[in-house]
Amino acid sequence: RALVQEPSLLLADEPVASLDPASAETVMRYIRDAATERDLTTIASLHQVNIAREFGERFLGMKEGRVVFDGYREEFTVDVIDDIYGDIETEAIREQEATDAAADDRSAQSGAQRT
To answer: Using CA atoms, how far apart are residues 92 and 51, in angstroms rounded to an integer?
Structure first.
C-alpha cells in the first residue's frame, strides 16, 4: 500500500518482525527491489542484524537511546556490532560468516573441478 502513492521516502518500521527467516528475506528482497526500481530512499528499523547487514547500505547503531555508530556496510564490522549489542549477537554473526565462507569454498572447489 505504501508504494501506491509513489512516495520519495519509504519508512519501514520492523518490516520483518515475527517472520520466519525465509519470509523475512523475501520481504526484505521485495523492499530492496521496489526501492531500486523506483529510486526510492528507504529507512528500515531492524533488530535482525544479519538481515540488516545483508540488505542495508548505511547503518545507525543505537545504545541506551544514543546513536553510537553511523557508517556504511564495510564499516559495520563484527567488532562494532559487539560494542553495540554484545557477545550474543556477534556469536550468531560469526557463525553465519563461517557458514557463508564454507559455502563459498565448496562452490569454488566445485567450479574448479568442472574446469
So the answer is: 12
